[in-house]
UniProtKB/TrEMBL annotation, chain A:
It is a multi-pass membrane protein. Belongs to the CPA3 antiporters (TC 2.A.63) subunit C family. Its main location: membrane. GO terms for cellular component: plasma membrane. The keyword tRNA processing does not apply. Keywords: Cell membrane, Membrane, Transmembrane, Transmembrane helix. It comes from the Bacteria. It holds the Pfam family Oxidored_q2. It is found in: Cell membrane. Coiled coil: none annotated. This is Sodium:proton antiporter. The chain crosses the membrane at residues 6-24, 31-53, 73-94.
Amino acid sequence: MNAPGLVLIFAVAVLYSTGFYLLLQRSLMRVVFGIVILGHAANLSLMLTDHAITLPPLLTGKDGPISDPLPQAMALTAIVITFGVTTFLLALAYRVWLGDDNDEVPADLEDRRIGRLSEPEDSS
Amino acid sequence: MLLPAILALHAAVAALLPLLADRFGARIFLLAGLPPAAAAVWALANASGILSGAPVTAGIAWAPALKIGLDFRVDGLSLAMTLLVSGVGAIIFGYCAAYFRADERGLGRLAAIMVLFAGSMLGVVTTDNLFALYVFWELTSITSFLLVGHEDHKEQARRAATQALVTTTGTGLLMLIGFIMLGTAAGDYSISGLVADPPEGGPWLTGALVLVLVGAFAKSAQVPLHFWLPAAMVAPTPVSAYLHAAAMVKGGVYLVARLAPGFAEAGVWQALVLSVGLATMIVGGWRALRQDDLKLLLAYGTVSQLGFLTLLGGAGTQVAATAMIGTLIAHGLFKSALFLSVGVIDHETGSRSISRLSGLGRRMPLLAAVATLAAASMAGLPPLIGFAAKEAALEAFVPGAAPSPPPVAAGAMLAGVALASVLTFAYSARFVWGAFAVKPTVAENRAGAPSPLFAAAPVVLAALSLVLGIAPALVDHLAQGYAHALPAGHKPYHLALWHGLTPTLLLTVLVVAAGVALFLKRRAVGRLQNAMPRWPDAEYGYHLFLHGVYTVALSVTRRSQSGSLPVYLGIILATILALPGVRLVAGLITGGIAVPGPEDGLRIWDSPLELLVATVIVVTSIATVREHRRFPSLILLNVVGFGTAGLFVLHGAPDLALTLVLVETLTTIILVFVLRRLPTTFSVRPDGWGKRLTVLLCTAAGSFIALALWLMTAARSGDPVSTGYADRAGEAGGTNLVNMILADFRALDTLGEVVVLVTAAVAVSSLVLLNRRDRVVDESSAEPAVPAPGNAGGTGEDPGPPGTGALALPVHTAGAEAVGGEPAERDPRRGPESDAADADAEAPEAPEAPEAPDESEGPAGGRRGDSEQGEDSDDER
């Protein structure tokens, strides 16, 4: 079997890296952007399983190898699901902004409180 | 297969009892006693067959591949335990019917859990599979926890219940590890197989045995894990009599006795079992001597007897095993009789404190006689079964009488057993004296004699002690059924009242004399006990341990849980790099993972166009990261999406490209709607090591995934599963294979996808529209009055209604000041740039934003835009 082209691999590497970086930001909107980019990266990863440039998987009677339809069907589903997730996250980010006046992910208050404890609260 | 059915009967009756509790009150215990009674009858019916050497077996497959099964095997030892657990259990259930009042809290629950406990305990003593044993074992721990904590409104009860649970299940987990180690070493998880053919010795076996023994010791309250048993005495007295005298605490002893035929030869076994048993026996007896509460006296006595049983069960000789079964039965009978007597006393007088009871012997002559009989059995006096058992126990450790243990150890054991017997005699006498004697310094209790049903249970149990004592051959028959599996002594030994003038009889006389002396000198003993330095308290150790666990947990939590989402995600990425990443690099270095070469189709690109599109994607995605203004960032994100669609086109996936373009467009539209309400820039983290580290981490993680994908794709050797799809799509009359897959081959998946989308749509609309309704309410409340600045600013959450012209202007100014001024102070985490944005916002009249010219700058401006523009956009939708 053929390995995919290096250019494609490089693009996927950059997409994953930038997606991860955005995911690690405090701004919810950038987190959403990160999810969108990671979605692209994942869909391209699915396409990597098919090798070389081929014809679309259409039964039109043309000669030549056609591309594998299965990863395409998966990627198609993934694109649509990513869309749903993105919209939902956006709505959440919007609500956060309505309440907090910014769209940042705050640190967890309970965790911070535990961080300040010097003695266990209940050791009976 | 009758045995599994009896177990199921326990569960069924337990499910039924809570429903009947309201109607029948405490009489439900008579129904609850049926399953244990059935088990006892079953055991008696099968006794002769089992004792003639044909164990009853039954099995229900559970997870055969993992060698886990509900296998049952009832041999001599299991038979003795079953008779004890179910026979004594049935009697105690009858007693409960008289003990509990109809208005007792949670009566149905209590009865149901007791039946469940009886069933679990029956499972423990009859199962032949290590895993099933563990499951039943933990079921007894859990039911015991619920029973000890029955009076859950008392803190003491909750505390004792938790303590018992933590001690027994914590060590139970260690035991499970030991079981697995034993099973893997032997390749067999059946107990009978393991004992018949024990695995080779060595450190592995030693470790396994230590772990198993720790579990058994905790269950049977051996020093230093004995502290939970006296604390568990807060349970109702019948529960204590059943769980903490007759049944559950015998679980550990049972396990020791069960494994002894296979492992008693192991060095660690002898050392641990004999030393722990000896220490427990003496510590328990010594502490029983100083208790004032009759129940606690019995509890420490139980600890002592359990040590005794462990010693006998673990010794691994025929005589010791005979003595062990004898003591097991004797203890089950006399200790539950004594507990039940204490229950009667407590019930009739309201106290069980030695310093408050006086003259009960006169008021309750029958009970006094019964309890004295049981105590005599405990003290080891003829003609009770306790005497026969104690004779056998002394005989077991006469130096030189049996091949093991070696004479010196046997001598030490014998001295220990004799000392413990003296203590036992003394606290037995103290019990009888404390409960029934007339004490000149204490006012006599006025109590009536208990009802016949109430007194029946102790009478039956004590009578059995006497009957079996006069005819010890019955117990001996049972004992030989287990003991024959162990190495024999120099001459056969049987439980009997009279063996002739033997050294052990002389020893018994000495023990009784010393015991009488100890009892008569009880004041001196009390002074001595008070003068002794307090030895390290095991319960204190338990609290220290718990506190340690909490402290470690706190410090781990404090270090590992910063509460910051980016840090958590970063840790996940770092883990990906640390585990599969390192493995991948190692594989590449050692050559374990093949790198595709030119012959495998190594190439730069598939077409020059691909290079162009990929370059666009790379450049724009990096630019998306570096861009801190929202709208340019969004546009760059868009280009990344369209670039990806371009790659799809190049790789023969037009359907994907079309869908992606559509989705990208929709996403962009929605993003614009949201983004124009938000500040125009993202907050920025200052440059520094943190940021550099993040970049490095993300780049490494992205590169790892891409590299792994490359190698995995190259390593693929099978044909795609979709090879035959083309033919079948032709049959179905379709031409577009991707469509065929989505709409035909995998239609159900697509339906699921549609459901996801619908769910997301519902969620999004509810999140967005919820806000709109709030605003409508605000408007209606603000409209009648002329909107004053203070009023608008006061609403806080939603500044001012959308007014017109001159009226609106002061409102907006006030709102902008109130809202825009705050975040800069409130949120110091935000970077300098967003502070600047906030500062801009304080002058809301300055129009600055090129991307959204309709709105003024900053959060405050955005907010005001919400009330003005949001209205329009909502209407548009």
